[in-house]
Amino acid sequence: MENGAVYGPTTEEDPGPARGARSGLAAYFSLGRLKRHRRALKILQLVLSLLAFICEEVVAQCTLCGGLYFFEFVSCSASLLSLLMLIVYCTPVYDRVDPEKVKCSDFYIMLGTGCVFLLASIIFVSTHDKTSAEYAATVFGFLASFMFLFDFFAMLYEKRQESALRKPETTARPAEALTEPLNTGRR
């Protein structure tokens, strides 16, 4: 037999960038890394914090501007952080970074952002001039902060469930069974 008959081609051609189920920019995005409820929370966090920032930017004048400026900084930072986390989860960046570090970072980012956003919303409510844009900004601010905190508690719940599954079961053995020799002479 000739070598050609025994050793045939065993691989297929490279499908190329244009062939396949997903092509172009869509090939880089994968929403499958997040569960449906977590993905919805991430999108809600982004939209609500962005709406809070936009409504705050519409405010034309203020009497006590410290609360407004703090709310502006926090709402802008929250929307950028939530966008960053969505990008990390939905692009190949997630594959290049340790997934446990991404989850740990997300865990602490959600806690910190939720607490600071809640504080900024409370401060802004106590210092605003009662215009409709300020009311809308604070409503979106509170909703966004609750979404961040809800995501944090959902991750905390998942971590506790995982750790409960990993715990080894302790079986009660009599003390005598542990001290018996392995070779007892039985045959």
Could you describe the 3D structure shown?
The structure is a single chain. The protein is built from 7 helices and no strands. It has 187 residues and is mainly alpha-helical. It has a domain at 47-159. The chain is flat, with a radius of gyration of 27 Å. The model has no long low-confidence stretch (mean pLDDT 82). Its main location: membrane. The chain crosses the membrane at residues 77-95, 107-125, 137-157. This is CKLF like MARVEL transmembrane domain containing 6. It is a multi-pass membrane protein.
- SSE pattern, N- to C-terminal: HHHHHHH
Q: What is the subunit organization of this protein?
A: single chain
Low-confidence stretches: none
Tally of contiguous helical segments? 7
Mean pLDDT: 82
Percent of residues in beta strands: under 5%
How big is the Rg?
A: 27 Å
Helix content: 55-70%
Structural class: mainly alpha
Subcellular location: Membrane
Region (Disordered): 167-187
InterPro entries: Marvel (IPR008253), MARVEL-CKLF_proteins (IPR050578)
Transmembrane segments: 77-95, 107-125, 137-157
